[in-house]
Amino acid sequence: MFYVDVWVAASTDSPVDTVQVYLKFNPATLKVTDIAGYLYLDQELPVPAFDNSLGQVGYAAGASDTNSPMTEEFTLAWVEFEALDVTGESGTQVLFDTLADPPTKAIRSGNNRTGTLTDVTVVVIP
């Protein structure tokens, strides 16, 4: 098993008070076993969810006090994966799902603050 952390690059120039993240992965290669937030944003919205048959993960959290947004980089959540098959050196990706409805985004006072989304490649070798 291994973990993938979801980081948010908030800053004083780009504060956030709510983040919703949707990830997709190859369910033939990876399986999610758990997901949890670090609760820097103290309200989970709704309960974290994943679907191993579709290869999807969803997580959202917000600040109960929107007058105190996050103004520095933080870890939103971690996803625990189990490798189901080897990938070879090319690996398999865990991607931000930009077509999800609602989409992956970081928000401040209702305004979209989403910047660059960086996917991760996982290499599973025997």
In short, what is this structure?
The chain is built from no helices and eleven strands. It has strands at 2-8, 18-25, 30-37, 43-44, 49-51, 56-62, 74-83, 92-96, 105-108, 111-112, 120-122.
According to CATH, what is the class? Mainly Beta
Main pleated sheet: 8 strands, antiparallel
Apparent shape: elongated
Query: What's the number of structural domains?
Result: 1
Structural notes for this entry:
This protein is mostly beta strands. It has one domain: Immunoglobulin-like, CATH 2.60.40. The chain is built from no helices and eleven strands. The strands form two sheets. Strands 2, 4, 5, 6, 8, 9, 10 and 11 form an eight-stranded antiparallel sheet that branches. The chain has a three-stranded antiparallel sheet with strand order 1-7-3, with no helix packed on it. Strand 5 and strand 6 form a beta hairpin. The two termini are 13 Å apart.
Secondary structure topology:
Layout: E1 2-8, E2 18-25, E3 30-37, E4 43-44, E5 49-51, E6 56-62, E7 74-83, E8 92-96, E9 105-108, E10 111-112, E11 120-122
Antiparallel strand pairs: 1-7, 2-6, 2-8, 2-9, 3-7, 4-6, 5-6, 8-11, 9-10
